[in-house]
Amino acid sequence: MEHALVIGLTTALLLGILAHKLKLSPLVGYLVAGMLAAQPWWGEPVDSHIVEGFSHLGVILLLFGVGLQFHLKDLLAVQKVAVPGAVVCMACSTCMGALVFHCVGGQDWAGSLMFGLCICVSSTVVLTRVLSDNRLLQTPTGHTALGWLVVEDIFTILMLVLLPVFFSGQELLPAIGNAAVKLTLLVVCIAFVGRKVMKKVLTYVSKSASGELFTLAVLVFALGFAVLAAKGFDASMEFGAFLSGMVVGQSKFASRAASDALPMRDAFAVLFFVSVGMGFDIGGMLEHWQLTLCTCVVAFLIKPIAAFVVISVLGKPLRMAIKTAGSLSQIGEFSFILATLIATQYHMLPEYAANVITGVAIITITLNAALYRFIPKLANHLEKKEIGRQPRINGEVPPPTDDKHRIIVVGYGPCGEIMTDILRKYDLEVIVLEMNIETVKRLEVLRIPALLGDARRRSILRMAGAEKAKAIIITTAAAPSHDIAESAREVNPSIVVMAHTTYIRTAQHLRRQGAETVFSGEEEVALAMASYTLRTLGATEEQVTRERQENRKRLSGNSAIPGGV
Fold first, then answer.
1. How far apart are CA 325 and CA 302, in angstroms?
2. Which residue among 145, 267, 333, 491 is least enclosed by CB atoms within 10 Å?
3. Model confidence over 376-411: pLDDT tens digits?
4. DSSP characters for 344-384?
5. Region 529-534: what's the mean pLDDT?
6. Which residues contact 222 (CB under 8 A, 6 or more apart)?
7. How far is CA 123 from the centre of its chain?
8. How many CB atoms lie within 10 A of CB 414?
9. pLDDT for residue 559 is more than 50
10. Closest to 56 (Cα-Cα) out of 385, 376, 279, 291
11. How far apart (Å, rounded) are the C-alpha atoms in residues 356 and 232?
12. Residue 51 — very low, low, confident or very high, per pLDDT cuts 50/70/90?
């Protein structure tokens, strides 16, 4: 088995690089690598039990990562779209999948329903990667899609919790009551007792031990709570890992755990996808090609069409509906997990059904990654045709919309130009405020919304849409930052104010006045030079980062010339 694992990982690396070069998801390369590693021409046959063990470990760490990045506030921010949209879309996909499996696969309705449930959830890994590659992750569209995924993740967790109850052979109501009591005790145990223990251990390790021991401690808690859930409370190990991830994610160690533990999770995730590929039988999928084709239609077409319709009915812009729906046109890891569990442990699905779902996942992941790059182009084309776009009136800037974050950039000098270019690449709506009429005319030629006027005037800020803007960025050090920030706060008390200054003293004054972030030329040059010097002398990246953080904290204080590097 060791040689198969080495071959699988090596092939995964090569095919992952190739997939990236072809602008496909690396997951496609990992799955194909597993398929190649399982072939008989390498020598010894693959041990299915070891493959299953790697797969299960990968699933546990995947769920830990989901819990680590799970934030209820992300769902609450987009709940009016994400919750009804995800529920309706999953219901539609489940019904269509069940109908397909019943008619084409010739199975009973109970098994068909299980098949439909397996293909109604999208891949978290694929969706976040696709949105990130297309610079949409931080936009309202990205937030809506992630909130949608949170609902699907919650559904998957509930499925993992409830499946053992439904197939336990006991009377349903007593079994559900018993499971509810055990799960409540598990949540209380991990959320209160486990949280205190975890906090003390991670605090001690972070202060007195090396970085790898902190990573090991996080891994021990992830796997330890998973085993506790299974052995002590008759729950799934995946649910225990999800809870432990949530506990770590809500602690002060969240950012460090994410930076240290998530790469480890990604490594095991590669093992998971390679192991899924090892168990995949392409011949079995081709034998049931009619079912594969119909399932692809449901996952790749019907599901995103349902999402598009729901988002449009809820009154959201066409651009948001198209981009969100396009990101959901695939299935992935959770479909593998549910299908394998239902087929192998509860025997509600034939094994070929789980194999078909794996094949459909490979196909839809490939198509989604390859074709999604055309979705923004389609949205732009429709907007040029004035379809789904609010037109500009009398040369004014367009009013704020729900599908883009609005950022106001004050000044279009070298700094302002760079900021505008970067923000527009990430699909943020930038409005430039300038005092130079020639610059405004040049921006109109470039189709960049701009206003001629003084940013200190509240009427100008309102014309720029400051009431609904996320941030105002003062890019020129010569601008009256204090007055602009004060006016912006009066128009929109929640707006984020960022300013560029030359001197540290000015930066500290603006911070005391309430600006969230101030960038001082003196400060940035000093920190950049110090960081370069430390790296030249052999300091680790962790040491450089720590020094930058400590000195940024000192520089944000009241002393004009703080000590330290």
1. 10
2. 267
3. 788 777 766 766 655 544 446 777 777 778 899 998
4. HTS--S-HHHHHHHHHHHHHHHHHHHHHTTHHHHHHHHHHH
5. 83
6. 60, 61, 64, 241, 244, 245, 261
7. 10
8. 10
9. no
10. 279
11. 35
12. low
In this prediction, residues 46-64 reach a mean pLDDT of: 69
CA distances from 55 to 16, 86, 480 (A): 18, 27, 59
Cβ contact 100:298 at 8 Å:
yes
Full-model pTM: 0.71
* Mean pLDDT, residues 265-284 taken together: 77
| Residue 166, H or E segment | helix 140-166
Pairing relationship of beta strands 429-434 and 406-410 according to DSSP bridges: parallel
Residue 391 is classified by DSSP as: P
* Chain CA centroid to CA 546, Å: 26
**Side chain identity at 160, as an amino acid letter?**
L
- 501, 507, 510, 511: CA torsion to nearest 10: 140
The one-letter amino acid at 253? F
496 Cβ contact list (under 8 Å, min separation 6)? 470, 471, 472, 516, 517
Task: Note the pLDDT of residue 44.
Answer: 64
Backbone phi, then psi, for 392, in 5-degree steps?
-75, 145
27-47 pLDDT, tens digit each: 788 888 888 887 777 666 656
Amino acid (1-letter code) at residue 110? A
Instruction: Determine contact, residues 515/486, Cβ cutoff 8 Å.
Output: no
